[in-house]
Amino acid sequence: MNELWLKKWRTVRKELTRLLHEFNEVNQEDTPVLYEEVLSMKEQIERLHIEITRKYAQQWWSQIPTEDIRRLRVLLIGRPISPSVIHRRPDLSYLMLLLDLEDPNVIRIWAEMTEEKRKKTLDDLALLTKLSDEESQTENSWQKQEEVDTLAYAVLGLTSSATWQEIRQAYRDAVRRVHPDAGGDPARFRHIQLAYEHLTKIRKP
């Protein structure tokens, strides 16, 4: 690091520390002005923190082999980890501490791993994301099935609490109303047929 810059920074920090100790000496009428000054300084410090964090992260990223970085990013992009998978596989729970790649300290941990340890960790992460993907697909499949069921009831003007007799009666009434031979809409008639066929599969005694 530039020694002159570091020396200046330490001087500023020392002066800020001194001012904090003398804060009680500030006059009440000066407080609004001081507030605005401190707010401005806070924003500047936050910007400095962001920039230092970025540089710090870059330093550690440069120590991780490119292929490992690529694999790590591929594993994590758009792949939320399911909490229930962690519950099922507590041996993989340590990975949750290593997923925040915005945190330079996390990047540092990855960078300091031995090649063998990093390979094992990446393999564990691949397994964790695979399990989470499989669980997500199962949940999506269940959700889609639930949506189909709900739609089938709605087409007949019913809810899932309807009895099989009510389903059958609703179908017969709907057919009479919309049958094409009676001037009904063919598309609507087909929807009613499909809904009844579906409910027959999941509800018929």
Automatic annotation (TrEMBL):
Q: Which UniProt keywords apply?
A: DNA replication, Stress response
Q: Where is the J domain?
A: 151-204
On whether tRNA-binding is a keyword of this UniProt record, the answer is: no
Q: Highest lineage ranks of the organism?
A: Bacteria, Bacillati, Bacillota, Bacilli, Bacillales
Q: Give the source's domain of life in one word.
A: Bacteria
Q: SMART domains, per this entry?
A: DnaJ
UniProt keyword annotation of Signal present: no
Instruction: List, alphabetically, the InterPro entries matched.
Output: DjlA_DnaK_co-chaperone (IPR050817), DnaJ_domain (IPR001623), J_dom_sf (IPR036869)
- The name on file for this protein is J domain-containing protein
Q: Name one GO biological process term.
A: DNA replication
Originating species: Collibacillus ludicampi
